[in-house]
Amino acid sequence: MQRLVGRKADGWLPSLGRLEPGALTAGNRAIDEAAVAAGRDPRETRRILNVSGEFAADAADAADAADTTSTLHGPSAHWVEVLGQLAVQDGIDTFVLFSDDPRTLEQFAEEVIPALREIARQR
Q1: What gap in Å lies between CA 104 and CA 55, rounded to an integer?
Q2: Rounded CA separation 62/56 (Å)
């Protein structure tokens, strides 16, 4: 599928919680190689990632909040660290938060997104 994305698509949208370790890097590599082979610039393929999780006040709360249905647990700084690495190392340019909890959406919008924008500006 990633080869098809590289040849034809405008973007790739996997879900973080469904990816095996190393799958994001491998998928991006396959997309890039297929894009080049098709005469396309790999940078024209958007890298979008579905994310979900639960905010916790600190590391101790994060350990208490951990469950198998979410992928990110911890304070906003932890989310920024994890998502920032994905942006820098794997070229993710858009994060889609899967949540209908108003507090989670608000915290993501007010604390995580501005910090990720700053990381993107520094790249």
Answers
A1: 7
A2: 5
Please give the full DSSP string across 35-80, using - where no structure is assigned.
HHHTT--GGGSEEEEEE-EEE-SSHHHHHHH--SS-SEEE-HHHHH
pTM of the full structure: 0.84
- Tell me the two tokens of residue 113: 């997104």
Phi and psi based region of residue 99 (left: phi greater than 0; alpha: psi -120 to 50; beta: remaining)? beta
Helix %, strand %, coil % of the chain (to 5): 60, 15, 25
List, for the chain, all residue ranges whose pLDDT scores fall below the cut of 50: 65-70
Q: How far apart are CA 57 and CA 68, in angstroms?
A: 19
Residue 60: the pLDDT is: 61
Q: How far apart are CA 12 and CA 6, in angstroms?
A: 9
Per-residue pLDDT of 84-110, as tens digits, reads 999 999 999 999 999 999 999 999 999
